Structures are given as structure tokens and as C-alpha cells.
Amino acid sequence: MTLTASVVGASGFAGGELLRLLSGHPEFELRQATSREYENRTVGYVHPNLRELDLRFSDPADLESVDALFAATPHGVSMGNVEQYLAAADTLIDLSADFRLGSEAAYDEWYDGHTAPAYLDAATYALPELSRDGLADADIVAAGGCNATATMLALKPLLDAGLLRPSDQVVADLKVGSSEGGAGGGAASSHPERSGVVRPYAPTGHRHEAEIEEQLGLSLSFTVHAVEMVRGAAATCHTFPTGGTAADGGIETPELWSAYRDAYEAEPFVRLVAGGGGVYRYPEPKAVAGTNLAEVGFAADGERVVAFAAIDNVMKGSAGQAVHAANLAFGLEETAGLTQTGLHPVGSP
Amino acid sequence: MTLTASVVGASGFAGGELLRLLSGHPEFELRQATSREYENRTVGYVHPNLRELDLRFSDPADLESVDALFAATPHGVSMGNVEQYLAAADTLIDLSADFRLGSEAAYDEWYDGHTAPAYLDAATYALPELSRDGLADADIVAAGGCNATATMLALKPLLDAGLLRPSDQVVADLKVGSSEGGAGGGAASSHPERSGVVRPYAPTGHRHEAEIEEQLGLSLSFTVHAVEMVRGAAATCHTFPTGGTAADGGIETPELWSAYRDAYEAEPFVRLVAGGGGVYRYPEPKAVAGTNLAEVGFAADGERVVAFAAIDNVMKGSAGQAVHAANLAFGLEETAGLTQTGLHPVGSP
Amino acid sequence: MTLTASVVGASGFAGGELLRLLSGHPEFELRQATSREYENRTVGYVHPNLRELDLRFSDPADLESVDALFAATPHGVSMGNVEQYLAAADTLIDLSADFRLGSEAAYDEWYDGHTAPAYLDAATYALPELSRDGLADADIVAAGGCNATATMLALKPLLDAGLLRPSDQVVADLKVGSSEGGAGGGAASSHPERSGVVRPYAPTGHRHEAEIEEQLGLSLSFTVHAVEMVRGAAATCHTFPTGGTAADGGIETPELWSAYRDAYEAEPFVRLVAGGGGVYRYPEPKAVAGTNLAEVGFAADGERVVAFAAIDNVMKGSAGQAVHAANLAFGLEETAGLTQTGLHPVGSP
Amino acid sequence: MTLTASVVGASGFAGGELLRLLSGHPEFELRQATSREYENRTVGYVHPNLRELDLRFSDPADLESVDALFAATPHGVSMGNVEQYLAAADTLIDLSADFRLGSEAAYDEWYDGHTAPAYLDAATYALPELSRDGLADADIVAAGGCNATATMLALKPLLDAGLLRPSDQVVADLKVGSSEGGAGGGAASSHPERSGVVRPYAPTGHRHEAEIEEQLGLSLSFTVHAVEMVRGAAATCHTFPTGGTAADGGIETPELWSAYRDAYEAEPFVRLVAGGGGVYRYPEPKAVAGTNLAEVGFAADGERVVAFAAIDNVMKGSAGQAVHAANLAFGLEETAGLTQTGLHPVGSP
């Protein structure tokens, strides 16, 4: 029996990606796509890749009853509509930050407070490679954010293997695509201004640190740069692990391979890429654009271990992650609807 | 019973795309991928998107027996190896120009002659939307070239409807991606030189004209520009049709919609995009990158009718077209293995 | 004695380019840069390349008295403020379309009418390579638009040499950068949507045709495509000249060289690029980005002559052209302040 | 009296940039441009921006006598030709790494040894903002490398102010353009492979560390990523300074402004950009493309101070730096020939 799904905020980038994934999903039937701005327009009017989809945007005030409601609205919206969503759906899969953090206090510190803190306990953070606990029964699933996802995937194996300790120094230097800014736009995201940049826009104190601290118990330094691509988030994590056992403290490459394989060998969406030959020797966004894959890698350098991760921010950093979490929430095959392959050659994704 | 397939010249761009398509094809089993240069390397060594594929390049001198052999080698190679290919496979699907034209004389005029002209009669040109004749029994299938494909898809409906006559004036102005140059590279295709160009590189007298003349009986003017993208071929055909029935000779938009719908309504890989609202009002490569779709459109302007077509040159202009033709040659469902959806948002594909 | 200049609408792209040119001009002293939106901000706040300039935007309601007032406002604004401008300056150099056409009727047909038609006679169209007549005494100079400039530079020599007749068939196929849309932006110009396109946005009936018809007496077909670059306008003009003297009507390359040299040999801002070897064999925008140069070229193809031109739309298509015209209007050395050299290597300009 | 100059290796990217700078330099007369590969071709054949330059490449075996010889050849060449160069010129300005390091041992460790170690003592490292000592009389000037230049400009003020100690933790994360790879090309630099990347290619142990250690006495961790642009090098230096005087160890923004102003206020080629409003709030390569400027900035984050620098790698990271050093070596005005202004708007430089 097919499960039904709806997408709220379906005219945005993550919303459109959900439409793409759900319309091709073997187990979900896409029933509704809402958008205030484009009510009654075909979904193809906004998403040209979905012109063959026979579906029109509808008013979010009239939500159909579905098994799974995917909310792809800007931060602050889901928390205001959560009761309406839970009335319409068995499970709410939220792509915003509204249910990612564990306490009202965290929202007071990092965001503008929370309007429905009572629901925070019912929410389960979703970065499945980190933990699948609680996803199977979740009423509210909070898909992890793109920068946090890339960063945590890069670091997790070092922590799990005890090589990196929570008190060790970690600097995450991120390079992200323009779709991270959402469909809203603004002066800085107009093509003449945004094209070809290497632009630090969050030099310090980024909200994604909150997620990472809660999930990994790790405090880290974060700097985000906008670069020339539409999709993609690449994390370079400079770590100074003190948990290695070698006499001189340095960690060798074989030990790193061990740690990363232990962490990810069984993971369907993680691909280890670390050294070797050819052109593509370390993780990069081009290689995974359009897919739910994360490339993860590492390099040893004396006291430093550099850990890399590259994802498609609209997929593994957002919509793909949400569908992955939904597969787990509904007891489906984990990779259902997420078997897309990347492209080669491909340009600036 | 599964059909078997092999790809010769599998380390190039079209070859890699064939590996992507065939490895996911429900009816074909990919048995061999050859490459002299990368013999014994995993296919993922060259094509990072295919790292999960458990397959190594092998020596093209040792071809396995298969049902379908896809040749993705540079022009001039297939004609030299055709006997070896036909010994190994029931059907040869060639992606080069070696079997596209109908006569040895044509190769003397447009290329450097032909070394196996006896096989030209056995070859069937493959642009299915133009004609499916002869594909079902073909021994040799010659997949149409990317620039010719885009151009002919744009023009066919005008010819079929009798609006455009073979003697009418037609100018095809093309904009293409860097992958058209193949994986070989050269000074002009290095990133610092090729990046950001609008560069006429075939101002006149392009080989694709030969294909078009043979297939459509139409003589036309052709100019090709390299532009900033890796995948994509966009044709803008400026036509001055004299077959319209209106008193003043002009052709009106409803008549054009009629012609294009008649030609393509039933075609699974053609999407009509002509005017309307929103951002994506006419055919463009971004909307179809990674898919086998062609967007086709038109605009009326007094005596002139502008016909547009946009494809992914590695897909509908090459590998996708080859697999489509193979589906027809083997009596499979036409869209088998070719149901990929495009992306939105997406950058320079 | 130094001449004084001001720029109205100085926070936009053409306005900022005027600031760059005038601040480095040996004969002009930049006295004022106006912007309603950024009043009191430093010019470097909007134009990061001009951070060293000690100047703040001021209120356009308080115009200083200057010799030359450059208006870089959107279409429709100058015609509404022309009296105020002429009260403040001896000479108005307008970058918009407001004074380019010759009659009120033309504005009724192509634009939304004209609010100060009495001033049209006092205005002189400025594409110096076309004609310098009337520029020396002009009260109002109307700098030619970018698409029209590129197109006319490509065609002029053919007309002058009598090879192309006004009734001959001409199709202009243009490829332009995102800065053509101005600094205002909009959904279609946000980076995720605008990046990597080959997008026809003016398939037919473009306003630039009006300018070309008036200036060259030539009726032509026009199609404009947005492509991936910020600066640049490239015109490919497909012409079918009937004025050649050869028996078969075809025009040979030596005859074309003659025509183009006659037209441009003495022109400081036109560079002929037609064939030859190396990577850069025909006009392209990258080669002239940041300069006031136009590359112009051609190729013969039987009945067809393809004429190319490439400019930087913010320079020769706008601000550079305006300064060139001002140099002529004030009897200065023609190339004053316009001696910038392009870059190599360079990316997507 | 004009000084004479020549450029050896003039067909490469840095060589071409030197031609651009020297041909417009008020004090230098460009006498010769050598290239084995393009001997007798006009310089414009390779560098389209220099088509107006009346100069042909000549054989490097026949060097003219000049005051200044600029060597823009790959690493390893100058050291082999140094005697020939010093016979032809009073001053050798070398753009390669061949004379940057102080000892033969350093070359044994970081490069492939040195073939003319006797000349190392006569060489003066040239990053003028770091030190002008020894440049005035230099026989051999070794222009600093691009990645080292960007990194050192970012860090110098922190060291000078005693905020950062040589033993403190520093991680430099670089993002660079494709021209860094030189004109030679290779598989990884072909447009289809290099386009749109965020590709770590030097995860650790980069040669530029050697220069930085020698110049600043600072040991640091280095990771370099190729990103989508042709020109540009952007350094993000994550530092953990322990030299601050505050009780809690943190360094506040006013203290940073002090340090950076002290270091750079009088420097003609350094522009401080740190916070503020608008779109361009931190250093970025687009803002300085084509100029000899470096944008430098910083942000305080508790224990961490992030220091940024952005340059054009072909200018301040290579040719511009060389000309700046030559101005100092010959006692000319420091900014002679280096007064170019950047562009806005501009794309991927």
C-alpha cells in the first residue's frame, strides 16, 4: 500500500527537490505541493525540470491528509504551523532549523527564540549516518542542515575512533553554493554580484555550530565562504587530534583508513575518497551533484588531520536527507528513491 | 533474458555516459568497458560518479561477445575496427560520425575519406524523432551528432507541416559546451582559455551540415560558438519559411503550435517550451542537463520563424541517443534506462 | 583647465563604470555621484573596486553645476529630468535610450512614449565609429545601446562598401552578460537561476532594432540570448549580401578585408580579428573585458557573410561609449581616459 | 632616461601579464619577449589583449642587453640560466621559486635540489609589504609566490603586533584560480574537468610553507583548493593567538584594527576590508582582479582570529609583485605602472 506525501513550501529550491524525489519514489505517492506565491500554477512553471509532472501548487491553508508531510519553508515557519502540520500528517519531516536543536534555550541563543518549544522533545534530529535512533517512530523529523551535515560526516569517524577528543582544536572551513541562500534572492545573490566569488559571508559564529555541538558534543570554529557554484557544500576540517596512540602523537594514514571504514563501510550514501591517483583524489561537490551521496576523505599531516566532506546541499544537505529520514521513519528500504547517479563530465553544478 | 552490452572507448566523455546509462539500464547487462590508456584501472578512476561500479577498463583488442557493442571512440576509429566489432556483437551502435553519412563521396567531401565504405549501406542513421525506419533490424546504428540533433529537432516540424521548404533560407546559430571537444583537450580547452567564452570556432562550413542535408534534404548555414558550460548544445534556427498559407506570408503562433504538436506530442523525449511566463520560457540546456530530453520551441516574427532546441550534448546528442536507438534496435521499451529527471536549481551544467 | 563632470544614477553598473573612468580621466574632474538609495554612503560601499575614491553619493535633487553630466539612470528617467540636467550642465551625456531615437512616434512604437519629445532634435546619437557628426557641439548626447553597438559595428563596413544592401537579409544573433539586466535584479537574475544559461529572452522584436533601423537604414531580425558571463555582448550577424560584384554573387575574404580595413583601420577602438591561428581567431568578449575596444571580424561562406563583433557591454556598450562621446563633445583627445588594456588569462568576465 | 626591460618565458600567463604591465609602464621600455614555442609569432597571437603591441617573440638564446630581465619561466629554469641572465641584465627579477628560499638545503627538502646554489645569497626575496630591505641594490630579486603572498599579508600584522606568536597554531585554507597551474595544462586543468570545482589538490605539505617559514619564522598548516575562477588566490587563516593582553586571552576587534592599520595604512597596495555593510564586507578576489591590490581583513571569534587576504595571483601573486619589486630595485616611484583599477560588476575573474 502506497504511502502518501505532501510538500509545503514546494516552490523553493529544497521544495522543488522534494517534488523531484517524491515523484520518482517507488513507495510514496506525491499528493500535494503547496505555495502561496504560485497557487494554481503548474509545478513546472517554477521548476522547469518537472514540466512533465501533472501537478499544480495549492494553498497551504488547505492541507490534505497524508502519511508524510515535508515542510520546506524558511526558518521560523514550521514552528508556527506545527499543529496544523501534525493534524494533516502522521509524520512531519521538517527541512528547516525549527526542530533541530534540543531546547528552547538553544533557540534563544542562536535564533530568534521558539514559538512552539513544547514540540522540541517530540522531534528527532536526522543525519542517519550519525544516528538512526528514534527515527523509526518519529512524529517530527528535523533534517540536519547542509553545512552541519558536511562537517559532521567529516569528523564523526575521528571522534568514534577516539582519535579526536571533544576538547581538541577543530576548524571547519566551508565553501558553499548559491542555492544555500534559498530562492528569495537579494542584492548579494544577483548574478552580477554573486558570480565568481570567493566570499566569506559567515566568518565566525555560525548557527550550524549549534547543531554540531549538540550532536557531536564538540565545540568548533566555523567559517563559511560563498564560491562559484549553485549546488554544493564542501567542508575542510582542520583537526589537531590528541587521542592517537603513537609515541609522537601523530596519526598515520592506515589508522585513518581504519577509522573511516569502520564508520562508513556499511553506509549506502557515503563514499570514501582519500588520495589515490587521477584527477579526482579528494571529496568534491561536482562528483555528487544531484545525488544523495557524500564524499568523505582525509589526509594526515603530522599533528594535523585534515578531514574533507562534499555533498550536494540541496540533496544530502536538505531534500535527500529528508527523504532518507522518511524512508527510515516509515520502515522502507533506506535507499528508496535515492539511487540517482552523478554526472561526469559536469560543470559548475 | 538480459541482453549484454559493451562500451569501447569507455574512458572518454560519451563512453563514461554510456557506462552510467547501461549500468542502470533494466534490460542491458554491462559486460565490458575498454580503454587502451586506462587498461586495468577501475572505471571510477576516470569517472568519479561511477566509483560504486565494480568494473575495470580492459584492452579493446579482446572484445567479449555481446548483443550490443557501443563504440564511443573518436571519428575514424570505428570505420577501421568495424569488422572486429561486428564479429563481437550482433549490433554495433556507433557514436562517431563514421557511419552517419550515406556515401563514400560524402566522406571524401566532409571528412578524410572512409576506410570501410562497404558498410555504409548497412548503417542506419539514428535520430529516432526524425525516423524510426530501419532501426529495428539494424546491424550498424549511427547515432546522430549533437549539433545536428539539436538543429534537426528544431526544424523538422516546420518541414513536416510544409511551412518551411527545402529551398528556404535557414541559419543555425549554435552555442555548445566544452565537452563537445572530447576528453583529449588541447590549448583552447584548458580552463584558463576556455572559461567564460563566447567564441565562434566553426563560423562556417561545419561537418554537421552534411548530416542535416542528408537527413532533411535541407541546405543551411551553420555557425557554432563555444560558450561557458560543460554539457549542452543550444540551437537557434532563424528560418524564413515560404510555405505558409496566410495572405501576407507570415506564419502565426497557433499554426506553429499545431506543427510542433503534430510532430512531437507523442514523443517521450521532446518537451515543447515556447513562451509562457516565469523564468524558463524557451528551451535551454540547464533544464535538460543529465537527461535524454530535448526542449524545443519557436517564436513568430513576421517573415521569420525562430526555432529553438536545447539538449545535453552528452545525452540526447550522444550517449542517450545511442541507448534510445539501442532500445529500438532490440525491441525494448523506448524509454528504458532513460528516465532521468533534470535538476533545479542547477548551475552551469 | 580641467572640465568638471557628474554622474547621476551612480550606484548602478553603468554609473559605477563611469565613476571608474572619470576618476582616472586626465581631463575631467569628477565632482558628484548621485544616488537616492545610497545617499551619503561612500561610492566604495557599492563599488568595491572604488574604495580608494574619496567620494560619497549625494541626492540627485541637488545637482552641482558641471561641464558634463552623465546620466546612468534606467530608461524613462532622463526624459523626465532633462530640464534639471541641462540647467546643471553644459552637456548632458545620457546612457539610457531616452534620446537615442529621432522622433516621438518611434518612442510610441518601441517604448512607452516620450515625456520630453521637444528635446529629441537637440540630441545626437553617439556611436562614434558610425558617425562623429554633431557630437562636437552636442547639448545632449545619447550613447548607443550595447546590443545595437555590437551589431552595427559588425555590419557597417558591409554597408559602406556596398556589399550589403539595406534590403538584404540580416539576422543578428546576440549573446549577452547578466549586467545587461542592470543592478535591479529580479527572479531571473538571481544566481541560481541565471548561472550557466543559454537562454533566449528576447526571441524577436527587440527595441535595439529601432536604433539600428534609424542609424543604418537597415531592417533586420534580432534574437538575444543570456549566457554565462557578467560583462559582454557578442553579436553574430548572418548576412546575405547581394551587392558583391563577382559573377556568382559570392563575396571573397580579400574583399571583406578591404571593406573592414577601410571602415576601421583608423579607428582607435576597433580591432579586426578574422581567422588566423591560435586560440583567439574571432571576436570574443573575454579579450576586451574592461576596455573600450570592440573586436570585429567576419567569415565568408558562399552566399552568406558572417560578421562578428564583441564588446564589453558596460564599456563600449555603455559607459566607455559615453566617455568617448564626451571626449568628442569637448574636443579632447579621443582616447583620453579610455586606454585600459584587457586581461589574459581571464575567466568569465 | 628610460630603463630597458625584457621578459623571458613571455608566452605563459605571468609572462603575458608582465608584457601588459611593462608595455604600459612609464619608466620601462619593453625591448624583448622570448618564447621558444612561439618564436617569431606576434605576442598578440598568444595574448589577445596585447594585439596592439608591435612585438614578436624571440629566441631566449639571444638575449638583449637590458637593465631589467624578468624571468617568467617554470621552476627549475632560472637556476639553470642565471649566468646567462645576469650577463644580459643588471638586475634579474625572477618569478619562479628558484631564488626564493635561503639555502640549498631548503631546496633539497622542498624541491628537487638547486643547480646554482652559489647565487642564493645574492638573491633578495620580494614581498615589499613584508620588507623592502635589500631590494634597492638587488642583483637577483625573487618575487614571492601567490599563495605565500596572500597568507603572509593576512598574518603579518598579527605577528608584528605581538598578538600572534611564532609558536601559535595557524591553519591557512586557500582557494585558488586555474591560472595557478600555468599555461601548460594537463588532464586536471581541461575545462570539463576543472570547471566548477571545489577541489583540494594540496591537502598538506605545500611548498609555499617553506617560503612562509623562512620569511615569518612561523610554522603553519596549509591546504589549497582549486575553485572556479581563472585569476585569484584567497587565503583564510585560522589563528589562535596567545599574545593578547586581555584577561581572558581573547582579542577584540579594535585591537585588530590597530594592528592592521599600523601594518598597512601607508601601503599603497593593501586595502583593509573587515566587516561593515553592503555586499562586499570581507576580502575577495573579484574586487582586485587585474590589479596589484591585496584586500586584507579579519574577524574576531573568541580564542580565534580569522585573517583573510585576497589577491589576483597573476598580479600581486606574480607579475605585479615583480614589477613592484623592480620599481624598488631601480628607485622608481613604487606604484609606477601599477595603478590599474578593478572592475565592478565583474564575473568569475
TrEMBL record, chains A, B, C, D:
Q: Where is it found, in Gene Ontology cellular component terms?
A: cytoplasm
Uppermost EC category: oxidoreductase
- Species assigned in the record: Halolamina pelagica
* Compartment(s): Cytoplasm
What EC designation does it have? 1.2.1.38
Q: Which segments constitute the Semialdehyde dehydrogenase NAD-binding domain?
A: 4-138
* Entry's Gene Ontology BP terms: L-arginine biosynthetic process
What's this protein's name? N-acetyl-gamma-glutamyl-phosphate reductase
